Each structure stands twice: as C-alpha cells, then as structure tokens.
Amino acid sequence: MDKKLLKRRSEYQWVIEPFGRMNVPAIIFADETLIEAMDKKVYEQATNVAALPGIVKASYAMPDAHWGYGFPIGGVAAFDPDKGGVVSAGGVGFDIACGVRTLTTGITAEDIKAVRHKLADRLAAKIPAGVGSTGKLHLNSKEMDNMLAGGAQWAVERGYGTKEDLLRIEGRGRVSGAEPAQVSDYAKKRQQDQVGTLGSGNHYLEVQHITEIYDKTAARVLGLCEGQVVVSIHCGSRGLGHQIGTEFLKKMATNASRCGIRLGERELACALINSPLGRQYIGAMRGGINCALANRQILTHLVREVFGDILPQAQLKLLYDVSHNTCREETHLVDGTKKKLYVHRKGATCAFGPGHASLPDELKSVGQPVLIGGTMGTASYILVGTEQGMSLAFGSSCHGAGRSMSRHAATKIWQGRQVVQDLADRGILIRSRSYRGAAEEAPGAYKDVSEVVEVAHQAKLSRKVAKLEPLVCVKG
After folding, report:
1. Which of 24, 80, 91, 457 could form a disulfide with 71 if both were Cys (CB 3.0 to 4.6 A apart)?
2. pLDDT digits (tens, 9 = 90+) for 225-274
3. Cα(43)–Cα(301) distance, rounded to whole angstroms?
4. For residues 153 and 91, what is the distance between their CA atoms, to the nearest angstrom?
5. For residue 135, what pLDDT is reported?
C-alpha cells in the first residue's frame, strides 16, 4: 500500500481521512512492514465501508488485514440502528462464526512424545475433514431447528461436553434471537450431515505446546504454563453459513438501490438494521453462529474421546472459544454515551478488556482470551483483551496471520507432498485429506503471524500471554 495515501497517527495507527462519500475515517493498525505489504484493496475496501450509512467512529482494519468480499478480512465496523445503520452479509462473511477454541490438557509435550504418531492417526480418523466432509450425526428438520436455536447448549444437552464448557464460550454457548425459519431449506440440507465436521481451507485441528510465556500473571489465571500441551480447533458453520451468506448477499444487493443505499462494490451489500430484510438476515445469521458453536462443541467431544483412549491422564478443559465473522449487538461508549451498536467483525475477534460483563468471574481480572491462529508450520498465540482496546476498535483484535497470497498462487509455488515432508522433518505431523490443500495452506502463503501479533500487542488492541507451536495438525 502506498503510504502517501495515509496519515500516520502513531507508530501503529494509519488514518485515511474522510473524502468523497466517506462518513468517518478509516484506521489501519499496522507497522511499516505490514502497511507496505498490504494490498491496495484493503485501502479501497476500508474506505468503502466508511461510506456506509450509520457507521460510528471509524472503519477499522486489523494488522492481518487483506482483501475480502466487500469488507476487508480483518475489518471491523459498528453501526447505529437509530441513525440508519446497516447490517451487511459481506461484512460478516460466508463462513459465519468461523472461530477458534483452545483446550488445555494438563500434560506436556514429553508426555505425548511416544504416542504422537498414533495420536495424529487417531485424530485424523475420528475428525471428519475435507471438502464436503460429513459426520455420523444426521439431523432431521426438528433437530436442525433446535441446533440453530440452541448452539453449543443444544450440543451439551445431547451429551457432547459439559455445562462447564459453556462458561468459556462467548454468549455461554448460544446467541439469542436466532430464527431458524429465516434459514432456507437448502442451507439446512447442506448442513444436515455436516455438524461435527472440520471442513477444508484454513480450518484445522492442532495439538500444540506452549513454548513461551509473556505474562505470568495472566497465564496463571488462564491455567497455562511453558511446555503444556493444548489443543486448538478452527472451523465454522460449514455449508449452512456459506449458503446464508450467498442468499442474503443477493437479496441485499437487489434491495440496496431501492432503499437509496449506494455501494462501493456489490459484495458490500447491506440492509437497514431495522428493515424487514435486515431483521431476517440477523435472525438467520444468528442461527449460523449457533451452528458454528454446536460444531466446535461436538468436535471437542470427539477430541476428548481420542485423548481418553490414548492419553487417559489428560484432562481437556475448555480455555475459551472465540468467533470471527459475526455481527453482534453490543453496548459501547460513543462520545461519552452508552450506545447499542451492531458491530461487524470479519476476520477479527472480540477482545474485551478486564471486568467486562460478558466474562466469567474467574477471567474478569485479566480480560477475555484472544486466540490467534497461525499456520501449520509456524505458531499460534493466546492474548487477552485490554481496557485501551475497548476504545481503540470496539474491543477487537486480529484473528490470525492473514494470507499474503491467494490459494491458487500458493499451489504454483509449493507442492503439498513436499510441504508435509518438510514439516515432518521439523517434527510437525500433518494429516491432510488433500495434498493440494496442504499446498494452498503452506506457511509461506501467509504473513508473519508473530509480527501481526506484535503489532496487536504494541497497539494495545490485545496483550500477549503465550506462544504455541504445532506438534500435530489435522487438515481437510
């Protein structure tokens, strides 16, 4: 990105002052290296978002920002329903509530050394993964609607996990206001055999170990220590979420011009929050969030079964579950007044600071865990939200490394079989359904996750607690 287009507010903040139809500025969080490497599309999309009706304060882009559909991936924007604010299918994304959950195990990397290959094989056999993957669970029409309304709570009621898990999930495992009736029959059909599956692309199940602790106090509260093994699950709402996004984007694109909403690009399609179409989408989208939460809850149960057979001494406890690709109704301070806003986070996570009302009591002293996924050959991170971040970007942080090249471009540079072998030589076991998928997800196709996380830390969006490195990775 051309830095001449930006005004530097601080070492880690770059501002695009309002011009043309922009209602607010656009703010990008990055250091010089990341800003120079960012594609021009981030600039264009962040400014397009800033021109949407009812946007509050600014259009934000996180350090991992890159081109997306409508909103940049890594984009954050909040809208005021009382001032003609909108909800955007493109601002949520197609994989609704794609997210990460991390479980602690109470065992160390040394404890699993002798059974690592067996563990990798059993996890790969147990966890359905890959394009169009299906699981053993088949939902009839009634159970589908119950799942869309109940989320992880529905899963726990059916024996997948414990009530204690729900305390460590955003919204206690369920977002209220879901309307299964607004989810099309075709979307439900796509999902009826996909609940409890990992999917493909950048989704993964990873066994990791903690290699560095940055904040001993926060780590102690979160139950983390150097050498400990953790398990992270990254997936979303599968075919159902994609279908909701596809269908409502078309409806919103057609409806926008009728409502006098000018779009910078078609994928920015949106509807007034308080309009019939806006409320329909919110009801369907909330069903998609609950679908993703149920999906990760069932996968957690399957992981626990594998560990129970191979490493019975392990105690897999849910540390936290965070979603990206959401629009949530939240209360934030705007010009000194509390306002209910609809906060879009596309490829960005909540990062609520200490004391936030949504946090369980045992986490209030340190803030919300922020789980940042890296690549299968680098590292992931655990951070916590900060008080400063609440005012910087509505309590938001980055969600991952962010791609530096397309999947198609990656397959021209790397061969999947070689990627898997290179990682095995480094002691990282990959179990992938597809060598092409492994090539698409080659570590070199992503930005440097450590640099992205450092910017989030230095910008005070979130605070570093621990670094995780992979031992086993299961991918589609």
Report:
1. 91
2. 999 999 999 999 999 999 999 999 999 999 888 878 888 888 899 999 99
3. 42
4. 26
5. 81
- DSSP track, 16-60: E---TT-SS-EEEE--HHHHHHS-HHHHHHHHHHTTSTTEEEEEE
Q: Which two tokens stand for residue 400?
A: 């991952």
Average pLDDT over residues 190-212: 93
DSSP secondary structure code for residue 378 in this structure: S
Which of 383, 395, 459 lies closest to 215, judged by CA?
Answer: 383
Residue 403 has pLDDT above 90, yes or no: no
What pairs with residue 76 in β-bridges?
Answer: 60, 345
φ, ψ dihedrals at 430, nearest 5°: -105, 130
Annotated active-site residue in 234, 242, 399, 457: 399
Q: Classify domain 3-404+446-475 at the CATH class level.
A: alpha beta
399 included as an active-site residue: yes
Which backbone phi and psi does 217 adopt, to 5 degrees? Answer: -65, -50
pLDDT of residue 433: 85
Handedness of CA 458, 462, 468, 469 (dihedral sign): negative
> Sorting pLDDT into bands at 50, 70 and 90, what band is 466?
very high
**pLDDT the model gives residue 283:** 98
Alpha-helical segments (H) within 178-271: 185-191, 216-222, 238-258
Look at the block and give the residue holding tokens 């936030």: 356
